[in-house]
Amino acid sequence: MNAELMALAAPCALFIHCLPSHRDEEVTEDV
């Protein structure tokens, strides 16, 4: 998941992930 994909979602959308997340593999730091 990255900011570009989040920009396509509704303004009220939240990114939810069961931890731990692997930075830069599953999700970028800006999300």
Number of helices: 1
Structural class: mainly alpha
What distance lies between the first and last C-alpha atoms, to the nearest angstrom? 7 Å
For the CA atoms, what is the radius of gyration?
9 Å
The description of the largest β-sheet is: none
- What average pLDDT do the residues reach? 90
Encode the helix/strand succession as letters: H
Shape: flat
Percentage of residues in strands:
under 5%
- Unreliable runs, pLDDT <50, ≥5 residues? none
How many β-strands, per DSSP?
Answer: 0
Structurally, the number of domains stands at 1
Specify the helix fraction band. Answer: 10-25%
Brief summary:
By secondary structure, this protein is mostly helical. 19% of the residues lie in helices and 0% in strands. It contains one helix and no strands.
What does this protein look like?
With 31 residues, this protein is mainly α. The protein has 1 helix and no strands. The chain has one helix spanning 3-8. The chain is flat and about 25 Å long. The chain starts with a helix and ends in a 23-residue tail after the last helix.
Which properties best describe this structure?
31 residues, mainly alpha
Q: Which secondary structure elements does this structure contain, and how are they paired or packed?
A:
Blueprint: H1 3-8
